[in-house]
Amino acid sequence: YDSPLSEAAVLGFDYGYSLAEPNMLIVWEAQFGDFANGAQVIIDQFLSSAESKWGRLSGLVMMLPHGQEGQGPEHSSARLERFLQLCGDNNMQVANCSTAAQHFHILRRQLHRKVRKPLILMTPKGHLRSKAASSDFDEFVKGRFHEVLGDPTVPGAKAKRVVVTVGKVHHELAERRIEEGRDDIALVRVEQLYPLHEQLLAETLAPYAKAELVFCQDEPQNMGAWSFLAPHLERITGKKLLYAGREAAASPAPGSPMLFALEQEALISTALGVTAKKITKAKH
Predict the structure, then answer these.
(1) Strand ordering across the sheet containing 242-246
(2) What are the tens digits of pLDDT across the range 89-147?
(3) Torsion angle of alpha carbons 149, 153, 157, 159, nearest 10°?
(4) Global pTM?
(5) CB 247 within 8 A of CB 263
(6) In the sheet that 27-29 helps form, which strands lie side by side, from edge to edge?
(7) Across the chain, how many H-helices and E-strands are there?
């Protein structure tokens, strides 16, 4: 039966299910995060504001594939910036986890905690195949969720630059840092964007007080976490924050594989302060 496809209908059903069964882990997962566009009215009118308007609590999880992986404008963005604009009064949680263990523990926390709040998870498809995003067994059975992940490989006294990141771009930066032989660049990951754990973030960045501070994202500058995080980072550190990422754009991602590769190389090299590689043939 060729049934109509309606993201709004399915998300509305799952939202209602989460109200009726608060002790169940109920997940609405999109094939691509962009598809949440069709359910925006449910997100705006119910998921983000029902607690404030009617005192209705929901523990619904939205898992939205998100991240620049060369799949084009319609398959790269879950519109992270829209969810961050909806955040206020501790109404929901927004996270972009960089490892398998982090994903596991934030879902486990969602069900075990006593309070019910919606959880919006950015889930890069590349993590399904990424060795860098995998986790050891002990990290699952003995670990916990960390709102911020520091960089134990680079001590504060040695760091000339600290790059704050969100999501999958961290792994690309880490790989390139090894290639360049740079042991003076620290990489700090903000795993939970809202509520932002400002104290933990400040403690993580404190050892790098003398280092240059950079924020790197692979989304365009008018999208992603930049507009949300930049004021917090500058206030916490008292420093001017440098930006490494795509320029502001009308589309979440370029349609050309070559342009995607050029932009990705530019933001990675800018974030690390290294010479950009020459792109001759784009990978798609």
Answers:
(1) 148-149, 185-190, 161-165, 212-220, 242-246
(2) 999 999 999 999 999 999 999 999 999 999 999 999 888 889 999 999 999 999 999 99
(3) -80
(4) 0.94
(5) no
(6) 27-29, 61-64, 119-122, 93-96, 192-194
(7) 10, 10
Reported CATH class of domain 7-141 = alpha beta
* Contact criterion met (CB below 8 Å) for 268 and 174: no
What is the Cα–Cα distance from 67 to 75, expressed in whole angstroms? 9
Beta-ladder partners of 213: 162
CATH architecture classification, 149-272: 3-Layer(aba) Sandwich (3.40)
Look up residue 221 and give its two tokens: 């500058």
Q: Report helix angle 169-180 to 257-272, nearest 10.
A: 60
Burial class (CB in 10 A: 0-12, 13-18, 19+), 60: buried
Are 135 and 101 in contact by the 8 Å Cβ rule? The answer is yes
| Nearest by Cα to 101 from 67, 65, 137 | 137
Backbone φ/ψ region at 16: left (φ over 0), alpha (ψ -120 to 50), beta: alpha
Q: Locate the domains of the chain by residue range.
A: 7-141, 149-272
Check: CB of residue 264 under 8 Å from CB of residue 76: no
Displacement of CA 39 from its chain's centroid (Å): 20
